[in-house]
Amino acid sequence: MTTGVGISDCCLSGKLAEGSPKGREEEIGGISTYVAQPESGSNAKTIIFLTDIFGWKLNNVRLLADSYAKAGFYCYIPDFHQGDSLPEELLQDIEPPLPTRENLSLLAKGTKTAKVGATLGPWLFKHREAVVKPIIDGFIRTVRMIPRTDKVGTIGFCWGGRYAVLTAHDGNYGPGNGVDAAYACHPSLLAIPADLNPVTKPLSVALGTKDSLIKEKEQGKIQDAMAKLTNVPHELKLYEDQVHGFALRGDFSSEKDKKAMDDAEKQGIEWFQKYLA
């Protein structure tokens, strides 16, 4: 039986990171793209970022790409929403941090849920799999053709997390044209186990134990599905008391949340250092 993990108000919550990204914007394969390169300039180990619903211009994801570049990876953040990402203002309009959320009245929660539906429904339909996945697949093929590109990985968050899992399937690209490893952080809209069964490339997953989309029951199903990938390197790490979106949009003022973000970053860097080597 397939379990669909949906999308909700916590996909629209989180904190904006401060700092100035050090990369540049280019057009690659007809898609506007943020590029962060390592000090060496080498693109031998390349990572493609699959963003959340806030898209390629969100400061958080650009700063994170800069961190991966500092670790030696050549990073691309393509605008897979093609200029139609959701506005950053929704980060706090929809849902406050976890302690506040837990004290909301039923009426307040109902109001927020209605607002989420009105915001996300049309956007998700416009950016459904049949529309977006061919764009992602085409970008991967384009990157593969860039000279000196050797190994390619994908890292995805929330909305993009599911697509990171899908890129780890082998049947979409042809020999030598797909990715070599993938990392999915708190994926949304994940079909369990249907999206995990076809995985053939090394896959790492990060989940928060307080994720309102992937609750304990779903986490167990993901663990069971990944355990069946006996011939594929895989890992699933759970982050205590972390909500959906924590790896990209956690609360920087909380020592515990900041550590979880740092550990999730380390998880991805170590995964790609091993499987993009």
TrEMBL record:
Q: Matching InterPro entries, A to Z?
A: AB_hydrolase_fold (IPR029058), Dienelactn_hydro (IPR002925)
Q: Which GO terms describe its molecular function?
A: hydrolase activity
Note whether Hydrolase occurs among the keywords. Answer: yes
- One family name in Pfam for this protein: DLH
Keywords (A to Z) from UniProt: Hydrolase
Q: Where is the Dienelactone hydrolase domain?
A: 31-276
Report the superkingdom from the record.
Eukaryota
User: What name is this protein filed under?
Assistant: Alpha/beta-hydrolase
The species this protein was found in: Viridothelium virens (Speckled blister lichen)
Upper lineage: Eukaryota, Fungi, Dikarya, Ascomycota, Pezizomycotina
